[in-house]
Design brief:
Structural class: mainly alpha
Order of helices and strands: HHH
Shape: globular
Distance between the termini: 32 Å
Strand content: under 5%
Number of domains: 1
Helix content: over 70%
């Protein structure tokens, strides 16, 4: 459905904010898959952001 990694990043952030961590991780993984082989600076920045949503959601669930 969503094919734009930036849109997926925003969606993952929204899911994280409302505590929907499983959805945030799933969306972040989809975004990461879309930019897997992209080595541009923009893709690197987006990759860090998406990986952060995955880490944040895991850490929040541990609390």
């Amino acid at each position: 459905r969503y094919k734009d990694p930036m849109v997926l990043s925003i969606l993952a952030a929204a899911f994280t904010e409302v505590g929907a961590f499983d959805s945030a991780r799933s969306i972040a993984r989809r975004g990461l898959a879309l930019i897997e082989s992209d080595s541009t600076p923009a893709a690197s920045s987006l990759r860090r952001r998406l990986e952060g949503y995955t880490r944040t959601s895991v850490e929040a669930q541990r609390r």
